[in-house]
Q: What sequence folds into this?
């Protein structure tokens, strides 16, 4: 039995690695994808381009401007002196937000009245807009605390008959502690996720397309008339891609550590073992795609139809907890979801099998069931 | 594999339907051991479908067929151990060398390791491809590709060989050489079941079945068939007459 | 260039597409699938963050803070009386993202007019959710703090004192701040890329693999005719997809379409044409479906998804990558889509993007037809 399986594996590697450009395909796409994902997938908002529209032009309004300038997030690089100019800045995408100070700002503050500052946000990217809105409100809140503190002290001091004594007032200070990723770099979160993406794509596509290719070329028929058993054929056609998947996993991990300095806090062997468990599912699905496709184009489309939802519903960048409930239930069937948890858990949290066993068990169950169903469908028959 | 008693191929009222289309319609025939059995008929007559059923690639809808004593519907894997098959479409790996193809197929046919070099050398010699071991298969000319395909199909020394239009698209000289190979096979005791649409090739067979619209419309040795259509009849005459007769019957 | 030969190729290609009903269904299903995913299932908006409370103080004051968290729609308390071990366990297995610890001396400090602390612990592994959660939690604590101060100030008879500056946030273009509204228009760029580059990358490679290319070469058909014939068939498919995406996006998902429909169709046609030529170019060069598909995935789908500003903002990318996005056509098309859909701006603002798409389409077409001429000769 192993003899025949080895023979197919050898053939598969020969075909896959003979041509330089085919060799490049094993290494190239994972490399490019990791680098692009690592650099491009970034939800950190570090530089907000701000437009400044000051219709008051007083010491108080300049104070507020300093408060924004002092924040590491905002860069004020455009001025607007009319509503139309502010609108144009937003239209042309030159700024992401405009702070608008109305005339009378300083006189209101001096007379103790509440005054209004408008923050115009470009909402076309709602996520960025919400965060920018929070940041801007925080800057103003801090300024308020300052102004209010001064004023309250003044009043309290005024009312003390004994003279100018500073009184203490209570306050509550939030103290933030962030675990696992103290600088909140989104790269640390996304790069490990790329491992999931690449293993899935490589193993799924190669399995499905290579089998369908043999169907298209007629060589599958030639193999089907040999006494080879279906299980031998399946193992022979899938093991090479499992190996390529594992190599890619190691490659991506290496890039994550060396280029992106993502911490790997957990056990690498556990990561390898979980990848192997996960590959069971992707190979099974690839095999299934090959049983329902006659042409490579069909196989490609079917694969794509599986991959897009599976990937976007894996929690890679859209948190599963925010999805509608029925969709959340569906994700329990998604092997990518469990593998995503495992990979991030091992990389960032450094947790081990004692916490990750449920996810690993699910991967094993899903993988074995899918492989089993696909193997049943995979007949050595043409009809 | 011990040879079984009885015919090499035994087909009884075989029917194959694809939805409403009847591809094979109540075909019955026997092929004796060591015979070269020809399957003659125009394209779309159901030759390839029948051969695929006999190879265990398609399940019959009705009727039964035994190859080397094994039932093709229930024991397809045992059938596959006893046959070699060459499809009408060239189906070796273009991107492997001659030697790698031979090696691969001896592997999947389960040829024991110790005899493998011998068998591969034999197949190479038979195909006349000695010295071309390291040539990429896609670079071979049509006739040579077919001979390599035949070489790959006999690596495990099957008692029965199914050849589905092995010579289509091959030049006449290469075709002649290919038939020499078939004769050599038969002489060494292999049963050869071959389909073709070339009339002159029909003459080379020991016995023939004429197939038309899924049915066998004539069966016998080339001499018998020609004799039944009067003196001086060629194979071509037999073919056309049988089809006309069949058309008239069905009307 | 013969129109008859061109239309023969076009018809054949159309028949291929129509005959393979499964691929066709999937090609037309792509926009529906992606719209449902991105319009319904996926959102970057954060709320109901699972939170563990550890109230060491247990005083009326500390319970007030807890009540604040309970009342907020951004937090959902999964454990009211946790401890450190519980917080660690839940953050480790991802059943909570935030831990709130109120120290034992909380009430004492507040009563003594000192500054008390509330510890906020975050699972930083999901940095985006964590930073949004941190923003909400800190704002909540600070709001409580200023209320506390104000109460104290009022008690001492200083009178009510509102915050001097009132920040009014006004959102232009997408005022409900729905992530759907910016994702759906950008999605059209991704959908067209899938149809154009991925599907066409296979078409010529398939002819080489199946040997039908040799057959075509023996006919008097010219490379440009072959190119345009194949291209037109997929162009029709792509425009159909774009129509489906537009109709569904506007009618089902309520995405605003503020700009000119004509401009949208024109821009889409330009972008689609360039993408189709790119797919055919790859197909001609690689001659292998597997290879062509992989290269198409890397060179068209991936940039359209990641480097176009569709979800991930270009200004936040490193400088080198930002420069690289300048040669990604999807970047210009996404800018066009957002401009037309959300901002309702016209040619006067968007002409540069249109010009780029035009130049790109012409260049890739020239390259594709030259390559095909060489390969077919």
A:
């Amino acid at each position: 039995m192993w003899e025949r399986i080895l023979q197919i594996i050898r053939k598969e590697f020969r075909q896959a690695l003979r041509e330089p450009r085919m060799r490049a395909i094993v290494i190239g796409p994972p490399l490019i994808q990791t680098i692009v994902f690592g650099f491009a997938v970034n939800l950190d908002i570090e530089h907000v381009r701000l437009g400044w529209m000051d219709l008051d032009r007083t010491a108080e309004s300049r104070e507020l401007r300093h408060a924004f300038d002092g924040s590491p997030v905002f860069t004020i690089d455009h001025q607007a002196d009319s509503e139309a100019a502010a609108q144009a800045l937003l239209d042309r995408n030159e700024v992401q937000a405009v702070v608008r100070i109305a005339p009378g700002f300083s006189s209101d503050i001096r007379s103790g009245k509440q005054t209004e500052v408008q923050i115009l946000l470009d909402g076309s990217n709602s996520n960025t807009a919400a965060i920018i809105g929070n940041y801007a409100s925080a800057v103003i809140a801090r300024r308020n605390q300052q102004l209010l503190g001064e004023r309250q002290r003044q009043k309290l001091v005024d009312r003390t008959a004994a003279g100018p004594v500073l009184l203490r007032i209570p306050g509550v200070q939030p103290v933030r502690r962030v675990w696992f990723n103290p600088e909140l770099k989104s790269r640390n979160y996304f790069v490990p996720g790329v491992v999931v993406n690449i293993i899935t794509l490589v193993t799924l596509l190669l399995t499905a397309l290579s089998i369908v290719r043999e169907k298209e070329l007629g060589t599958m028929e030639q193999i089907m008339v040999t006494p080879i058993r279906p299980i031998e054929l399946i193992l022979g056609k899938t093991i090479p891609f499992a190996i390529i998947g594992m190599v890619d996993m190691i490659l991506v991990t290496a890039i994550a550590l060396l280029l992106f300095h993502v911490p790997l806090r957990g056990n690498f062997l556990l990561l390898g073992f979980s990848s192997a468990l996960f590959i069971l599912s992707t190979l099974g699905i690839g095999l299934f795609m090959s049983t329902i496709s006659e042409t490579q184009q069909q196989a490609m489309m079917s694969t794509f139809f599986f991959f897009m939802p599976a990937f976007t519903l894996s929690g890679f960048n859209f948190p599963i907890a925010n999805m509608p409930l029925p969709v959340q239930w569906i994700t329990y069937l998604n092997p990518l979801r469990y593998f995503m948890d495992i990979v991030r858990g091992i990389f960032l949290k450094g947790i081990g099998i004692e916490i990750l066993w449920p996810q690993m068990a699910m991967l094993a169950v899903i993988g074995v069931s899918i492989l089993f169903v696909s193997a049943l469908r995979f007949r050595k028959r043409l009809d | 594999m011990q040879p079984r008693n009885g015919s090499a191929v035994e087909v009884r009222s075989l029917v194959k339907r694809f939805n409403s289309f009847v591809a094979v319609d109540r075909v019955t025939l026997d092929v004796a051991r060591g015979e070269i059995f020809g399957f003659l008929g125009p394209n779309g007559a159901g030759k390839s479908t029948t051969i695929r059923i006999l190879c265990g690639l398609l399940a019959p809808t009705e009727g039964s067929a035994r190859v080397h004593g094994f039932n093709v519907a229930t024991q397809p894997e045992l059938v596959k151990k006893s046959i070699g098959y060459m499809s009408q479409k060239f189906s070796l790996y273009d991107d492997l060398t001659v030697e790698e193809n031979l090696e691969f197929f001896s592997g999947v046919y389960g040829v024991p390791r110790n005899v493998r070099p011998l068998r591969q050398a034999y197949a190479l010699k038979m195909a006349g491809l000695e010295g071309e071991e390291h040539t990429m298969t896609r670079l071979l000319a049509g006739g040579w590709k077919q001979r390599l395909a035949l070489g790959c199909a006999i690596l495990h020394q099957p008692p029965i060989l199914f050849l589905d239009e092995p010579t289509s698209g091959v030049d006449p000289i290469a075709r002649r050489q290919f038939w020499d190979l078939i004769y050599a096979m038969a002489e060494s005791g292999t049963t050869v079941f071959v389909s073709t649409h070339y009339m002159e090739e029909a003459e080379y067979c020991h016995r023939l079945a004429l197939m038309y619209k899924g049915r066998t419309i004539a069966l016998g040795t080339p001499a018998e068939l020609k004799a039944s259509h009067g003196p001086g009849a060629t194979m071509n005459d037999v073919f056309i007459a049988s089809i006309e007769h069949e058309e008239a019957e069905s009307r | 260039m013969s129109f008859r030969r061109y239309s023969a190729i076009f018809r054949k290609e159309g028949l291929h597409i129509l005959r393979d009903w499964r691929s066709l269904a999937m090609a037309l299903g792509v926009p529906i699938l992606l719209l449902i995913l991105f319009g319904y299932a996926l959102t970057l908006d954060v709320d109901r963050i699972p939170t563990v409370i550890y109230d060491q103080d247990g005083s009326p004051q500390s319970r007030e803070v807890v009540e604040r968290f309970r009342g907020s729609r951004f937090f959902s308390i999964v454990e009211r009386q946790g401890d450190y071990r519980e917080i660690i366990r839940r953050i480790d297995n991802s059943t909570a993202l935030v831990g709130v610890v109120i120290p034992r001396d909380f009430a004492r400090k507040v009563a003594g007019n000192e500054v008390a602390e509330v510890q906020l612990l975050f699972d930083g592994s999901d940095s985006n959710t964590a930073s949004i959660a941190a923003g909400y939690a800190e704002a909540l604590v600070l709001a409580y703090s200023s209320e506390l101060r104000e109460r104290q100030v009022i008690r001492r008879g200083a009178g009510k004192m509102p915050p001097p500056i009132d920040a009014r946030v006004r959102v232009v273009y997408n005022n409900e701040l729905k992530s759907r509204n910016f994702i759906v228009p950008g999605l059209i760029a991704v959908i067209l890329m899938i149809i154009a580059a991925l599907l066409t990358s296979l078409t010529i490679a398939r002819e080489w693999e199946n040997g039908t290319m040799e057959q075509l070469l023996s006919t008097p058909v010219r490379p440009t005719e072959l190119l345009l014939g194949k291209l037109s068939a997929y162009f029709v498919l792509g425009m159909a997809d774009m129509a489906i995406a537009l109709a569904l996006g506007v009618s089902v998902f309520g995405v605003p379409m503020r700009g000119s429909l004509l401009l949208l169709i024109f821009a889409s046609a330009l972008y689609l044409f360039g993408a189709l030529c790119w797919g055919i170019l790859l197909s001609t060069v690689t001659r292998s479906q597997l290879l062509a598909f992989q290269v198409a995935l890397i060179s068209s789908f991936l940039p359209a998804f990641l480097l176009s500003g569709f979800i991930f903002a270009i200004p936040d990318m490193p400088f080198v990558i930002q420069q690289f996005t300048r040669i990604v056509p999807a970047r210009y098309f996404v800018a066009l889509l957002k401009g037309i859909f959300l901002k309702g701006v016209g040619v006067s603002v968007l002409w540069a993007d249109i010009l780029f798409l035009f130049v790109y389409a012409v260049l890739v077409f020239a390259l594709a037809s030259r390559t095909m001429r060489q390969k077919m000769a």
